[in-house]
Amino acid sequence: MAGDVWHWQLEAMHVVSRVRADLRARIAHPSVSTSSTEDARDGLLLVFEELASNALRHGGGDVRALVVASPAGWLLDLSDEAPERPPVPAVDRDPSLGGMGLHLVAQLSVDYGWERRPGRKHVWARLPSGLEPVEGFGSQVPEPRAPEIPRD
Questions:
Q1: Average pLDDT for residues 7-18, to the nearest whole number?
Q2: For a 10 Å CB count at each end of the chain, is N or C smaller?
Q3: Could you please report the per-residue DSSP string of the chain?
Q4: Between helices 38-54 and 13-28, what is the axis angle to 10°?
Q5: What is the rounded average pLDDT of the residues 119-141?
Q6: In Å, what is the CA distance from 138 to each residue of 62, 112, 116?
Q7: In what order do the strands lie in the sheet with 5-10?
C-alpha cells in the first residue's frame, strides 16, 4: 500500500481507539504487513495514539490525523487548531506521572517535529518500516523548544 494516504477526523478521545483499530486493519493488509515488521507496525500504532491524544488534550478544535505510507515506512501528521501551543516534552518528571509520550515518539521515529501553519499546528513523525537499518535510530531525545513568535 505504499503511496496510500489515510486520514481521519478526531472529534473526541473515544474516537482515538476506533481510528487506531481502523489503522491497525489497514496496516495488517498483506501489502503492508509483508513490507514492514510487526514491531514497526506496533510502533506506528503507539505513536499515532500518543500524538492523537496529545492533539485532543492539549490542542483542540478540529483535530485531524493523516498517515502516508511509503516503502520506507510512514509519515504520521496530527494537526489541531492551537498553533500557539507547541508540543512540550516532559522534563524532570517522574515517568509514573505520565507525560512521556513525546519521548516515546522520539525513540520510535526516524524523524519528528512540529510546525505552525495558518490557524493550525502540525505535529509529525516519520516511522520506519523496520526492514532496513536506520542510522542513529532511537538515540533522539526531544528538547524543550520555545515557540517561534511571528513578528509583524
A1: 94
A2: C
A3: -TT-EEEEEE-SHHHHHHHHHHHHHHHHSHHHHTTS-HHHHHHHHHHHHHHHHHIIIII-SSEEEEEEEETTEEEEEEEES-TTS------S--GGG---HHHHHHHH-SEEEEEEETTEEEEEEEEE-SSS--TTTT-------PPPPP--
A4: 160
A5: 75
A6: 31, 12, 26
A7: 5-10, 63-70, 73-80, 120-128, 111-117
Contact 105, 46 (CB under 8 A): no
The count of C-alpha atoms lying within 13 angstroms of the C-alpha of 7, restricted to the half-sphere facing its C-beta, is 8
pTM score, two decimals? 0.81
Which of 90, 117, 111, 133 has the alpha carbon at shortest distance from 47? 111
Percent of the chain with pLDDT over 70: 78
Over residues 80-94, the pLDDT tens digits come to 999 999 887 766 655
Compute the mean pLDDT over every residue in the chain, rounded to the nearest whole number: 84
pLDDT at 149: 46
In sequence order, the β-bridge partners of residue 123 are 78, 114
